[in-house]
Design brief:
It is found in: Cell membrane. It is a single chain. The chain is an all-alpha fold and 67 residues long. The protein has one domain. 88% of the residues lie in helices and 0% in strands. It contains two helices and no strands. Helix 1 runs antiparallel to helix 2. The chain is rod-shaped. The two termini are 40 Å apart.
């Protein structure tokens, strides 16, 4: 997500500096759309990784407490 926002933000900033268009929404809207698309594409994987991590941590709690 962050890399997507960084790349799109850099591209828009470069476009704005070349064309001298200084509009705030011109940089915000494409970044929001790109991050939303990245979230739609990788969201299922991220949730699956978070659930697996949480389950593993909860399964290890007894061994960490010495039980």
């Amino acid at each position: 997500m962050l890399v997507t926002a960084l790349v799109v933000g850099f591209a828009i900033s470069l476009f704005q500096s070349v064309t001298q268009i200084q509009e705030v929404t011109l940089s915000f809207v494409p970044k929001a759309i790109a991050v939303s698309v990245a979230l739609l594409i990788s969201g299922h994987w991220m949730i699956q990784e978070a659930v697996t991590f949480t389950q593993t941590i909860f399964e290890r709690i007894p061994s960490l407490l010495g039980g």
